[in-house]
Each structure stands twice: as C-alpha cells, then as structure tokens.
Amino acid sequence: MNAIVASDKVYVAKSKIPDSGRGVFARVDIKKKDIIEICPLIEIPVNDFANINQSFLVTYFFSFGKAKNKLAIALGFGAIYNHTYTPNATYKKIPRESIMKFIALKHIKKHQEITVNYNNGDPDDKTPLWF
Q: Strand pairing of 82-83 and 22-26?
C-alpha cells in the first residue's frame, strides 16, 4: 500500500452555501487538474446496510461498484466537500486502493470553497440527489 499524505491545500470552515454547515476551502491557489486531496476510504460491510437510511451519516456515504451496490465513507475532508451542480472540483473513487481523489476542474482561488457534484463526481449530471 502506498503512503497517503494529508493535503496542505485545504482547510475546513463555515460554508456560505445555505444550510450546508461546514465546507472545504482552498488554502492556496489550486490549478485546474491538480489533485486537491487523496482520502482513504472505509467500506461499509453489506450486512451493515440495513439501518443506513435511518442514520444521520447517510448524507456522508459514497456509492461505488459497477451496480453502485457498495458504500464507503471518505476520511480526511472527503465527506465534508459540499454539493453543487456547478462544481469547481470532482472526485474519482479508486476502490482497489481504498482511496478517493479530489481533483480541480478549474482554477480555484485561495479561500474559495471547493465543491463537487455528488452524482458520482460528474459535473454534467443534473439528476436529483438520492437523499
């Protein structure tokens, strides 16, 4: 397993997005296509799925797998990035390495909030969210 180093590019602060709580912000200027953060994933065992929809944590899970039948939670700041349909970043799940990479879609200025589209990181997917 490769070592994962904490990102020095981001910090968490109060989001300006209504009803979003905290968000992830750029600590430095980030260039388009730069990796913002690499987050370890914790896969949720299938036998723990039964009560997930009743849990407060349901909004922090990411689905993956060919049939999107697996769930994981991203560590680091991975579960704190806020959603928008006009994101400045995306994410790529790499289950075989148990990591998720957050990548800039465009130049992100220092202190700007970093957002992703929760629909599998696809910036063009405008379908309603699952929760």
A: unpaired
Q: DSSP letter for 27, please.
A: S
Note the pLDDT of residue 57. Answer: 57
DSSP string, 45-99: PGGGGGGGGGSGGGGGEEEESTTS-EEEEETTTTTTPEE-SS-SEEEEEEGGGTE
Q: Which helix (H) or strand (E) holds 11?
A: strand 10-14
Domain that includes residue 88, residue range: 10-116
Output the domain CATH number for residue 15. 2.170.270.10
- Answer with the residue of higher pLDDT: 64 or 34: 34
pLDDT band at 100 (very low <50, low <70, confident <90, very high): very high
Q: Which two tokens stand for residue 73?
A: 């939670």
What pLDDT does 78 receive?
93
Domains in the chain: how many in total? 1
